[in-house]
């Protein structure tokens, strides 16, 4: 009697995209974007290359899936305002409190942070598909953060005077992430708190953290 064939399990589009995301994060973090092929990702997931293309369109579609659809939409100010954490009042949120939330969030997604840092480094090459994204990121971060009614100390004089602080905060976080990914390890969140005291000094920011 012939053996019964195993029934093929059909996965939902959401499940398959999650598998593709995990496979791409792993491979790009290890080898870089230029060091992998679509076949590598398809093999990691266990699907055909045409099957992979059905979900991402092309190789650059992987980056859209990972960065704009996943990385940038997670840990956002919107998530913070819905968190109920101290300082997350939607009518008057505290900017330092949001950055603490973001630091804690990033510390819990090491693989995604490593992927981001690898892509940022590769994007110095003008031919890299993420070159313009990272080149324009400081301006896009400023524009996005400027949409929210942050509660600031009177001494600051308004959000328009926060541009240098926002730039420095993102630069510091990038530096912490690089150091955090190396050995010996450091504590991401504790390191951020040390810099927070320099960016938002006492007593000016004591009631606005």
Automatic annotation (TrEMBL):
<keyword id="KW-0238">DNA-binding</keyword>
<protein>
    <submittedName>
        <fullName>AcrR family transcriptional regulator</fullName>
    </submittedName>
</protein>
<dbReference type="InterPro" id="IPR009057">
    <property type="entry name" value="Homeodomain-like_sf"/>
</dbReference>
<keyword id="KW-0805">Transcription regulation</keyword>
<dbReference type="InterPro" id="IPR050109">
    <property type="entry name" value="HTH-type_TetR-like_transc_reg"/>
</dbReference>
<keyword id="KW-0804">Transcription</keyword>
<feature type="domain" description="HTH tetR-type">
    <location>
        <begin position="14"/>
        <end position="74"/>
    </location>
</feature>
<dbReference type="GO" id="GO:0000976">
    <property type="term" value="F:transcription cis-regulatory region binding"/>
</dbReference>
<dbReference type="GO" id="GO:0003700">
    <property type="term" value="F:DNA-binding transcription factor activity"/>
</dbReference>
<feature type="DNA-binding region" description="H-T-H motif">
    <location>
        <begin position="37"/>
        <end position="56"/>
    </location>
</feature>
<dbReference type="InterPro" id="IPR001647">
    <property type="entry name" value="HTH_TetR"/>
</dbReference>
<dbReference type="Pfam" id="PF00440">
    <property type="entry name" value="TetR_N"/>
</dbReference>
């Amino acid at each position: 009697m012939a053996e019964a064939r195993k029934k093929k399990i059909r996965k939902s589009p959401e499940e398959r995209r999650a598998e593709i995301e995990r496979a791409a994060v792993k491979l790009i973090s290890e080898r870089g974007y230029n060091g992998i092929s679509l076949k590598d990702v398809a093999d990691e997931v266990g699907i055909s290359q045409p099957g992979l293309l059905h979900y991402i369109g092309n190789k650059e579609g992987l980056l859209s899936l990972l960065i704009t659809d996943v990385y940038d939409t997670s840990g956002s100010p919107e998530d913070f305002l819905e968190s109920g954490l101290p300082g997350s009042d939607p009518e008057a949120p505290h900017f330092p409190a949001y950055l603490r939330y973001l630091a804690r969030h990033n510390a819990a997604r090491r693989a995604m942070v490593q992927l981001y840092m690898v892509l940022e480094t590769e994007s110095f090459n003008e031919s890299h598909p993420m070159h313009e994204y990272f080149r324009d990121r400081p301006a896009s971060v400023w524009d996005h953060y400027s949409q929210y009614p942050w509660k600031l100390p009177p001494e600051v004089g308004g959000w328009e005077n926060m541009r240098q602080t926002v730039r420095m905060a993102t630069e510091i976080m990038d530096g912490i992430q690089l150091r955090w990914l190396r050995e010996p390890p450091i504590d991401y969140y504790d390191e951020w708190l040390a810099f927070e005291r320099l960016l938002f000094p006492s007593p000016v920011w004591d009631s606005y953290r």
